[in-house]
Amino acid sequence: MPNLGTTEIIIIALVVLVLFGSKKLPDAARSFGRSLRIFKAETKGLRDDDHQAPATHQTPAVQPAPLPIEAPAQVAAPAQGAQPGVAVNGSAPAADRH
C-alpha cells in the first residue's frame, strides 16, 4: 500500500475543500463525528449484550398460560330430500361426470 506524504494529504484536502466548499465542511465533519459516536456506542452495546447473554439463559423462561380450546363450528348437513342427478350450484349431475 502506498504511503501518503504531506504533499499528497495537502492536495487531497484542497480537492475536498474545492468540492464541498468551506461552509459545508464543518457541518459534514460534525455529522460524521456524531455518526461515528453512535456507531461506537452501538458496537459497545452489542459487546455488552454478548457478555450478558449467558447469564440470561440460566433463568427459566416464563411460559404463557394455555389458551382454552374451542369446539369447531358445526357444518350444516345436506338436505335429506336431495334428488340424485340434479345439478347443484351449476355443476353437472354426478351421473354425467366421467
UniProtKB/TrEMBL annotation:
GO molecular function: protein transmembrane transporter activity
Region (Disordered): 43-98
Alphabetized Gene3D superfamilies for the sequence: 1.20.5.3310
Biased composition (Low complexity): 71-88
Primary role: Part of the twin-arginine translocation (Tat) system that transports large folded proteins containing a characteristic twin-arginine motif in their signal peptide across membranes. TatA could form the protein-conducting channel of the Tat system.
InterPro entries in the cross-refs: TatA/B/E (IPR003369), TatA/E (IPR006312)
Subcellular location(s) per record: Cell membrane
Composition bias type Basic and acidic residues, residue spans: 43-52
Pfam families: TatA_B_E
Known partners and oligomeric status: The Tat system comprises two distinct complexes: a TatABC complex, containing multiple copies of TatA, TatB and TatC subunits, and a separate TatA complex, containing only TatA subunits. Substrates initially bind to the TatABC complex, which probably triggers association of the separate TatA complex to form the active translocon.
Main localization (coarse): membrane
Family: Belongs to the TatA/E family.
One GO term of the biological process aspect: protein transport by the Tat complex
Highest taxon of source: Bacteria
Protein name: Sec-independent protein translocase protein TatA
TM annotation in the entry: 6-22
Family matches, as PANTHER family: SEC-INDEPENDENT PROTEIN TRANSLOCASE PROTEIN TATA (PTHR42982:SF8)
Membrane topology, from the record: Single-pass membrane protein
Keywords: Cell membrane, Membrane, Protein transport, Translocation, Transmembrane, Transmembrane helix, Transport
GO annotation, cellular component aspect: TAT protein transport complex
